[in-house]
Write a structure and sequence with these properties.
Largest sheet: 7 strands, mixed
Strand content: 35-45%
Number of domains: 2
CATH class of the largest domain: Mainly Beta
Radius of gyration: 33 Å
Oligomer: single chain
Shape: rod-shaped
Length: 300
């Protein structure tokens, strides 16, 4: 009786099992800004006008929190510093210790990441008439771009029951929803790539209708079905039992290349139809045991 219950449980699980995997595409990265120290900065006087680009270009820089600023010394005539604080020339108290580049030689550079909101005046300790300011604001919160990938038949995929499988890749949140996305998709078996391609989805929703078969994999032209961009793939994909991996990455948004991209993957197991022939002997054997028990009861 226990074996039969296990069989029913297994069949029930196979019948109701579905997959819905969420992939994260992390195409957000820390911003970087460059400030130039122009030629002749040592002779300039910017204390009366922070916007004067003769000392630091730009003289006043507004950035979001988390931005890295790189000062590049493009002045071939002198070294300079980027020292936080208000210079004595402007009746300040000098360096405040928040950041200090030390000497930046000609053609050299120095970077600092601003992780606090506020205004950060600075000056050149060698040439106190050179002043600048960085204004750091909270900025717009970065929204995580997410994809949801679903499969229409229950998984593991039974190729004898379902002649085809449809995989849908849909943006779920972030600034990629509703935009044209370019995907790089790979399907692998035992770590060997059996197909890969670059596919566009007009509104971001990519639909792969895969029909296992023999021979080389062929891909149809894009077909717009509502908000979905559908491609038909036929050939040697999912046509043998085993474990497969599907890797997907967004490589462009509205035609603009995304850097860096994050590649994710999920697994698909391909199995034959649950063999009824394997169940029947169990059922017959169990029925025979019941019949034998009945016969013993009658004999008693």
């Amino acid at each position: 009786m226990l074996s039969l219950m296990n069989i029913r449980l297994y069949v029930s699980i196979i019948a109701v099992l579905t997959v819905s995997l969420t992939l994260t595409i992390n195409n957000s990265y820390a911003a970087e800004v460059t400030v130039s120290i122009p030629e002749g900065a040592a002779l300039a006087n910017c204390t009366q006008n922070l916007d004067d680009i003769k000392c630091y270009n730009p003289g006043i820089l507004t950035i979001d929190k988390g931005t890295t600023v790189t000062w590049k010394n493009d002045d071939p005539t002198a070294s300079h510093t980027v020292t936080s604080g208000v210079t004595f020339v402007m009746k300040g108290s000098g360096p405040d210790g928040k950041f200090d580049s030390s000497l930046i030689a000609p053609n050299a550079s120095w970077s600092f990441t601003f992780n606090e909101v506020g205004e950060f005046p600075y000056f050149c300790s060698l040439h106190p008439l050179m002043v600048g300011k960085v204004i750091v604001q909270e900025g717009t919160a970065q929204v995580e771009n997410r994809l949801v990938i679903t499969s229409d038949p229950a998984l593991p995929y039974d190729r004898t029951t379902n002649q085809a499988m449809t995989l849908t890749i849909k943006p779920d949140s972030g600034d990629i929803v509703g935009k044209k996305l370019t995907y790089h998709v790979e399907i692998l078996n035992a770590s060997a790539t059996i197909w890969d391609g670059i596919l566009d989805a007009t509104k971001g929703i990519l639909e792969l209708h895969i029909m296992p078969g023999d021979g080389e994999v062929s891909v149809s032209e894009a077909e717009e079905v509502g908000d979905n961009t559908r491609y038909h793939l036929s050939g040697a994909i999912f046509n043998t039992n085993g474990d497969y991996n599907l890797r997907a990455e967004v490589i462009a948004i509205d035609g603009e290349q995304v850097e860096p991209t994050t590649k994710q993957e999920f697994s698909i197991s391909v199995v034959p139809e649950f063999p009824l022939a394997a169940i029947l002997p169990m059922i017959v054997g169990f029925s025979a045991v019941l019949a034998l028990l009945r016969m013993k009861r009658i004999n008693i």
